[in-house]
Amino acid sequence: MERSDTPLLDELEKGQWPSFVKDMKEAARKNPMAKDLLKQLELSYKDKIGHWKHGGIVGVKGYGSGVIGRYSDRPDLFPHVQAFHTMRVNHPSGWFYKTETLRKLCDIWDKHGSGLTNMHGSTGDAILLGTTTEHLQPCFNDLSDAGFDLGGSGSALRTPSACVGPARCEWACVDSLDLCYHLTMAYQDQMHRPMFPYKFKIKISACANDCVAAIARSDLSIIGTWKDAIRINADEVRAYAENINIQKEVCDLCPTRCMEWDGNKLKIYDEDCTRCMHCINVMPKALRPGKETGASILVGGKAPIVKGALLSWVVVPFMKLEPPYDELKDLIERIQDWWDEFGKSRERLGELIQRLGMRVFLKAVGLPAVPQMVKAPRTNPYVFFWPEDLKKEEK
Amino acid sequence: MSDDLKVKVTELFREKSKGDKKMFYIRDVTKWLPGEDRHAIQNVVKELLDEEVLKYWSSGSSTYIMLADFFPKE
User: Fold this and answer.
1) d(Cα B63, Cα A195) in Å, to the nearest integer?
2) Is A291 left (phi over 0), alpha (psi -120 to 50) or beta?
3) Using a CB-CB distance cutoff of 8 angstroms, which residues of chain A are in contact with residue B68?
4) Which DSSP symbol is given to B71?
5) How would DSSP label each residue in A104-140?
6) Hey, which residues does B24 pair with through a beta bridge?
7) Which is the most buried residue in A108, B8, B56, B64, by most CB within 10 A?
8) At residue A318, what are phi and psi to the nearest 5 degrees?
9) Strand, coil or helix: what is A68?
10) B25–A83: do the CB atoms touch at under 8 Å?
11) Residue B50: its chain A contacts at CB < 8 A?
12) Closest Cα partner for A93 from A185, A156, A157, A155?
């Protein structure tokens, strides 16, 4: 029996799940880059170390982001992955493609790269894995001709991303797709020409279910919500009561206990509701978001690279969001300008706010302190008096 | 004014690159010129990048700026 070149990777082909090794092997049959990638990965498993050198080349003519340089530290063994750069392609809002568009993208990548992709990376972009330095500009030219552009990388605004919103979801409180498109078009320079202290991410979820996990993954999270009362269909509530225990599964799990169920009628005290959407998720036919819709704006979310992970927190409880979104853009620019001025290199917005304080942040961007900013009961780290206000009080 | 600033920024890059450190954050550049407007410095750096006097270097997550002469050849 012939011995495999990749015995360790072969283990990852076993089982019922789709295997990346199978796809890489298939790509390796026609592409020498994919073949060397496979062999280098096998060596990485054997040595228990990644064999990549990172950094360097950053883009194509006029761009400072969108390409992530990667080089093998064993070009002697794997010459076809000596340079194996990643290209980030700006995804369309909500990740809607025609099959024809995807074919075009794949044809371009088969021509210029390894044929391997991540659809999609955690930034949202379509990630094209592995090309050489010589192919970067011709690949970009072909992508441009096909209507694509590169996304953000490095110390830049990263490609904004959004949930499928009103295109596929009845709970959308804002048009996340339109907003994502507007912001992407408005901030082309911030995306392609890195000038920030570090990365800055904007993610948009059209409702509080937060399908793109904006609250955990973005410096500026825009999350759809509503202002008025939850719409109740009383007949449908009673129909649900035949199959579920409304008291136990809805009222008792409401985080603010703002609901009452008497066995026949559901009463919601909307002034106490935090719009978490738990009740709506349990009884989607009976309950709907209100009609006065907009979004909450939150800041400071990030994953744990330099400092610990942070969830975004509310700075604007409700903002009506309609094109051309001037109020939002104005706020984004004030926030970015403050961070750009005071942020240390590699310091995210949330970390800067932690270092200087929410009070300073709010004053700098001209936002009033409001109760919705309080993160947890009995702790109020954000709303303090300024020394000059205390002096005024004394007089 | 922009041309003067451009010369200043280029000279500072040359001076600061005399040691082992060749790559700088944009934040370093604005700190070198505390009296100048931060946005004006950023615009000048963009112009120098367009003229290929300076080059971006990126790890993928953060971006540095350096003199094109020192850009590593892989």
Assistant:
1) 8
2) alpha
3) none
4) P
5) HHHHHHHHHEEEEEESS-TTSSEEEEEE-HHHHHHHH
6) B65
7) B56
8) -150, 130
9) strand
10) no
11) 62
12) A185
Residue with tokens 């409702």, as numbered in its chain: A207
Cα–Cα distance measured from residue A150 to residue A363, given in angstroms and rounded to the nearest whole number: 36
- Radius of gyration from C-alpha coordinates of chain A: 25
CB contact under 8 A, B58 and A68: yes
CB-closest option in A193, A199, A344 to B61:
A199
Q: State yes or no: cis peptide before A192, omega within 30 of 0.
A: no
Question: How far is C-alpha B66 from the geometric centre of its chain's CA atoms?
Answer: 6
**Helix or strand run (H / E) with residue A261:** strand A259-261
> Could you tell me which residues of chain A have a Cβ less than 8 Å from any Cβ in chain B?
54-59, 62, 64-65, 68-69, 71, 82-83, 86, 133, 153-156, 193-199, 305, 340-341, 343-346
> Which of A57, A341, A346 faces B62 most closely, judged by CB atoms?
A346
Residue A378 is classified by DSSP as: T
Q: Which of B38, B46, B57 sits opposite A55 (nearest CB)?
A: B57
Coil/strand/helix, residue B55: strand
ipTM value > 0.90: yes
* pLDDT confidence of residue A381: 52
Question: Rounded to an integer, what distance in angstroms lies between the CA atom of residue A262 and that of residue B8?
Answer: 76
Cα A96 from chain centre: 16
Q: Are A377 and A255 in contact (CB under 8 A)?
A: no
Task: Tell me the pLDDT tens digit for each residue of A8-30.
Answer: 999 999 988 889 999 999 999 99
pTM of the model: 0.93
Distance CA A102, CA B38 (A): 42
Q: Nearest-CA distance from A119 to chain B in Å?
A: 18
Kindly indicate the confidence band of residue A379, based on its pLDDT and cuts at 50, 70 and 90. low
